[in-house]
């Protein structure tokens, strides 16, 4: 499956992953679609957590982020689908 298909499938998990798993997906997704973090850190807790997840992927190439996202999906799909 390609990256876009995996993204759609991960959004359709039948049970919601815990926040730490969601943030792993979020950081990789943002790195693929926006590159390195380009905003200021939000003040609210949820926004700050998303920012940190994205920042943790700084310097990762688009292709590497796509591959990591797919691997993450393959790891968690059996649990959350």
TrEMBL record:
Keyword presence, NADP: no
Top-rank taxon, per record: Eukaryota
Keywords: Lipid-binding
Residue ranges annotated for the ACB domain, each copy included: 1-81
InterPro entries: Acyl-CoA-binding_protein, Acyl-CoA-binding_sf, FERM/acyl-CoA-bd_prot_sf
Protein name: Acyl-CoA-binding protein
């Amino acid at each position: 499956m390609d990256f876009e298909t995996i993204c759609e499938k991960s959004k359709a998990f039948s049970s919601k992953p815990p926040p730490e798993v969601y943030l792993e997906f979020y950081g990789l997704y943002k790195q693929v679609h926006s590159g390195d973090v380009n905003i200021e850190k939000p003040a609210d807790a949820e926004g700050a957590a998303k920012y940190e997840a994205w920042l943790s992927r700084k310097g990762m190439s688009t292709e590497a982020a796509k591959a990591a996202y797919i691997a993450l999906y393959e790891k968690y799909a059996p649990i959350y689908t």
